[in-house]
Each structure stands twice: as C-alpha cells, then as structure tokens.
Amino acid sequence: MGSTVNSPSTPIIIPSSPLQTSFIPKTSQLSIFKKKKPFNFASKKLVSCKASDRNQKNADSSSLNRFDRRDILLGLGGLYGATNLVSDPFASAAPIAAPDLSLCENSTVTSSSSGTSMTVPCCPPKATNIIDFKPPRFSNIRLRPAAHLVDANYLEKFTKAMELMKALPDDDPRSFRQQANVHCAYCNGAYDHVGFPDQQLQIHFSWLFFPFHRFYLYFYERILGKLIGDPNFVMPFWNWDSTPGMVIPDIYVDPTSPLYDEKRNVDHQPPKMLDLDYAGTEELLSKRDQIKSNLSVMYRQMVTYKTPSLFHGAAYRAGDNPSPGMGSVENNPHTAVHRWVGDKREPFSEDMGNFYSAGRDPLFYAHHCNVDRLWNIWKSLPGKKRTDFTDTDWLDSSFLFYDENANLVRVKVRDCLNSRTLGYDYQKVNIPWLKNKPTPRRPGRGSGSGSAMAAESNTKTVIRNAFPIVLDKLVRIEVPRTKKSRTKVEKENEEEVLVLQNIRVDRDVAVKFDVYINDEDDETPTEPEDSEFAGSFTNIPHNHHNPGEKLDTKLTLPLSDLLEDLDIERDDNIVVTLVPKEGKGLVSIGNIKIDFVRD
Ligand code: C2O
C-alpha cells in the first residue's frame, strides 16, 4: 500500500506483475486462493433431485463449461467461489436460492465520510405460503412507453395507480413503502444465502442484476394495474439513451404529483442534461458535447461488450462471496443515473443515490425499465455470443416477490429471459447511439506506438510489483499481452479483456475511476468519445451488515474493438491509465492483467 507515493504531477508506470498462466497446475493455484465456505449438501441434493432429465443434461454440460471457464478465471486470478466447486464433485448445482424471509434482518446504513449510521427495517411482511411462479396468460403484448412520449390519458392512469399504491397501509406488501423496501432488502444485507449464514445476498455486482430487476418491475407493474383495475397497464421507461430522453421526464417533476420525489438533486431538474459519465461533479459541457458523450458511453457499454458474462456480470452461486463483478450496463451508465438523480444534501444521497432508498423515488422504476429494455436490445444486436447464459446455476437462481394479490411468489431466472413471455415489450424508439462509435484521439498514431511507448516509459518512474495500489492519483501501468495480431475468428471466439482484480473499497462510498489505454496526453482529459477510454468502475453506496466487510470485486473490460480502433493489435504491451474521479484515495486494486473470455 502507499507505493504510489510520488509528486502529484508525475504519473507512475508500473509493469504489472507476471501473468499467472493456466500452465500453473490447477491445484497449486487453488491452494493459494483457499476460501472457507460450508458445503451445504442438503440444498444441493434437493436441487439435483428436482432436476428433470433434460435439466440434468444441461447441468452436466454446463458444469463442464464451468470448469472451462474456471480455468480462465483462475488465469485471471478469479478468486470467487472457484475452489470448492472444483474440488467438490456435488457442486454442479449451486443456484442462489430464494431467501428465507423468516431470517430477514434489519439493514444498517452508514456513511464513512460523515461517520453517521442508522438502522433501516426493510424486511417484508412474512408469509408462510409460497406460490411457484407461472408465466401469465395474456392475449396481446403490451408495450411499455417512453416516459417523455406518454399522452394525458396514460398519465392520468399512471398517476392514479401511484396514488393508490401510496395510499395502501404500510404493512401491505404491495404498498409504496414495502415495494421500496424490496430493493433495500436484496441490496443492503437483509438476507443471507440459504444454508450459508455468513454470506449476505447481494443481487448487484453479478449476473443476478438483470433478472432480479426485471421481476421486481414486473410485479410492481402488476400491482399498479390491479389497483386501477387495468390488467394491461404498463409502466413507462426513462429513455435516457436518446437525446429527447436526456432530462428527467416532465411527468416526474410536478411537485403535486405522486410521481414526484423531493429527494433529488435540485441542480438536475429539467432542462439540465443528464450526464451518463457522471462522477459527482458538474462537467459544464455544451448540450451538444453532453449528447455526444452520452451516446458514446451507450455505444461502448452496449456494442463492445459481446459475451454473456461481459454484459450480465460475473457468475454468482450459492455460498459465493457477494459482488463478484458487474456487467457493462449495471456499471455504466446505470450507476451514473442513480448518482446524478440522488440528492447530495441528504446524509446518504437519498433517494436514488443509495441502494437502501433508491426504490422510494418513482423515477427509479422508469430508470430500471430502461435498463431492462437495454437487455432486450443487447440480445438483438449482431454477434453470435449476444445471448443469455445457459448455466443452470443462473437459470435456477430464484427470488421472492409479492404479487398483485399479496401472494408471495417464488420466481426463477429462467422464467424471465424473454420479456414477451411476461407479456410486455418496449415501444420502439430511435436508437441513436448505434452510430456513435468512439474514435481515436490521435489518428495516425497507430503502429509503432509500442516503441514510442517504450521510449516514453523510460522517462517515468517505474516501480515493479507495486500491487496492491491505492488509487489516490493518476496511475500508469504497463501490462503485457500474451496473444497478438489475432484473427477475426480468434477474436470472435475469445474476447481479450483487461481485468482489475480485488478492487477494494468501503461499500458505503461513492466511487468512479476511469480506465484509459495507451493514452499519454495528460493535458487534455480523455472523454468517453475517445477510443482510448476503455471504461469506468463505479459504486453506488450500500451496506452489508458484516462490520468492516469491504466491497471486493473485479472489473472486466473488453479490449478487442479498442485495440483494433487504436491499431495496436501487434503491440507487446498496453499502457493502462487509471484516473480516480470520485472516491479518490479510497479504492485499492489488487492486480491488473490481460486475459481472455470464452463464454
Ligand atoms: Cu438495484 Cu439501480 O439498482
């Protein structure tokens, strides 16, 4: 720690520590990363008993895939949940089970910066009877509308529904407060994994992100529809990925409306343009530049992430440590929108700026409808790996929600993969970001930049094996590449990725740092519209109740397109620049390396 101390203006070049390759025998790697985790025989046995023959086949083949992938993960130094599954022959089925509501605990919300803390009861009413989810019957697909395009008739219905929801008694599981608490409970440590009392359930930072929120919205919508006697009611989406949607939609800003929330950033009312690269400070871009920046963020996060794990996030199984790694959209711009809307004057950036309170802002649901819509769009883009996982641990992961009749329903991820089987899709609107591919900052600098880089690196301080590093200033790291000039087919089969391992930070801190590749210009800031901008890491403040447990996660950024665009596919190394934007000095990074994703 602290090895990056240097004069503030001098960037440091740190060659990353040697790659752990998969040539190291598995066992020797495993022993390094031994993680104690109780093996719950009972719950696993149950799952395999239930599996039909067909499922069993899937489970078998997916467990093979899983071992493949695990080799890659170990190459990356992937520490999460790998060990037991490799050594444990029964571990082929370990989906996250729906939580046991009777064991739900109050959440604690803290702020490390102000030293404040409070207890939040966000457990749902208990119910003994659980119904297994069945896809609804319907006669037509309903289209969720863009919030800025709805008519007066729709608005009247929506407003009425929200009013009625807010009028339900607080102990009704369908009430506005209880529905907001659903998010708090699944995101702030109220539940443990069934059979693993030390592992808190966290549905963010992993492959559970999209399915969990899809079901959450689905039941919310059913409740609203029931309240106004309209089973065809659909919620609106906040179309922040297109120009007319880049302000808070009008219908949410009338202080007399039930769609209004006073705990929002007062400086971000319309006509203020949303910043999808938001890091806690105002950027003062012209409207035109802000649009360009936003569309570039969208292009990168949607188009350059081409495999299920890059899009959805890392695998997360029963007994695993929480928060193995976010997917593209969850990280960015999902976090930026939360932070941009939340009120900085509130102790915990309520409502949208903290997971425990985000569901208290009606705008949350429009925000997440757009996130959900992007899942549909991502799968419709060209590319043979733009599919969902086939891993049964993902498909069989389950959650509990109260439905429109206040019945407790157990849902499985496999039941929500196609929004149309749930009876809805999204109004078709323009998708402007498809045409906003980032471009290199300095055209023509391509080939030969490897040697230019080497020459330059001589002029900078070089520190070997400096990890872990604390991100308190701009840091440069030279990272070796193992495969160069790959063919198109090779690139399609394996995405070259940059992996930042063991990113550690207090969970209750807002964080954003950016990652640039071969970017040597310290004078002008790199922006999302530059090809050199590889992505960002973000955190929305939230808590778990294990005191002192830090967020410990990884960031995986696709490189194949970027290397092509910068014309550096033949280079032996890339130079990675890490720039803290929010939460400076509070984040440490365990290692950084290049690897390959095959899923
Ligand atoms: Cu569950 Cu947008 O967070």
Automatic annotation (TrEMBL):
Binding, Cu cation A: 183, 204, 213
Crosslinked residue numbers (2'-(S-cysteinyl)-histidine (Cys-His)): 187-204
Disulfide pairings: 104-123, 122-184
This protein's UniProt keywords: Copper, Disulfide bond, Metal-binding, Oxidoreductase, Thioether bond
GO cellular component, one term: chloroplast thylakoid lumen
Pfam families, per database record: PPO1_DWL, PPO1_KFDV, Tyrosinase
Sequence positions that bind Cu cation B: 334, 338, 368
Cofactor binding, per record: Binds 2 copper ions per subunit.
Region (Disordered): 435-457, 520-551
Residues in Tyrosinase copper-binding domain copies: 204-221, 361-372
SUPFAM superfamilies: Di-copper centre-containing domain
One GO molecular-function entry: metal ion binding
Required cofactor names: Cu(2+)
Cellular compartment(s): Plastid, Chloroplast thylakoid lumen
Protein name: Tyrosinase copper-binding domain-containing protein
Organism: Gossypium armourianum
